[in-house]
């Protein structure tokens, strides 16, 4: 089958997110200038550079995370492992800005070292980030969309020593959760190494 996105698909559910998969989950903690704390998962999230390390997440609509980061220029990306999948899901609830999702989902907070927003204490890894750019996405006609992409430079990294093996962040221990299409998720357990031709 083939369809144009302009005309729409003939399927019961949009396959776009199922095709662009698996996607890491950006579990973003932020804090407003007034001290209101927010924790929310974003499935449009990834690393986009390594020198310096840059991450991004996109928000469909102007949500609390975006507003907080615009105000303070800081956020943390909390690693979502299998150990926290249900807590992560709880924080996806649409609640008013004055509701602290850490408290809502029974998640223990821990302080960050270089930024004000707290981090998820039991996350196997956390990236402390400072804002570099916010971009409002446009379509082919140059019209503004309701999608906002946030870029941040990683300034500090927390890693749980329990998921380290021989100096490596061991994904077989951390078991990252990835977002698929529809309401589907997966846990990464099957890992293999594949060398480039120039590494053989």
Folded structure, characterized:
This protein is mainly beta and 200 residues long. The chain has a single domain (24-184), classed as Electron Transport, Fmn-binding Protein, Chain A (Pnp Oxidase, Chain A). It is built from 5 helices and 14 strands. It has helices spanning 16-19, 64-72, 85-90, 101-104, 171-174; strands at 23-24, 26-31, 37-42, 45-50, 53-60, 74-78, 109-110, 119-120, 125-138, 144-159, 164-165, 168-169, 177-179, 185-187. The strands form 4 sheets. It has a 7-stranded antiparallel beta sheet, with helices on one face. A 3-stranded antiparallel beta sheet has the order 1-13-14, with no helix packed on it. Strand 7 and strand 8 (119-120) form a beta hairpin.
Short structural summary:
By secondary structure, the chain is mainly β. 14% of the residues lie in helices and 38% in strands.
Overall 3D geometry?
globular
Strand percent estimate: 35-45%
Uncertain spans, ≥5 residues at pLDDT below 50?
A: none
Tell me the radius of gyration: 18 Å
Q: How many angstroms does the end-to-end distance come to?
A: 40 Å
User: CATH class, anyone?
Assistant: Mainly Beta
Structural class: mainly beta
How many helical stretches?
A: 5
- Mean pLDDT level: 96
Secondary-structure element sequence?
HEEEEEHEHHEEEEEEHEE
Largest sheet: 7 strands, antiparallel
Helix content: 10-25%
Kindly report the CATH topology: Pnp Oxidase, Chain A
How many separate domains make up the residues?
1
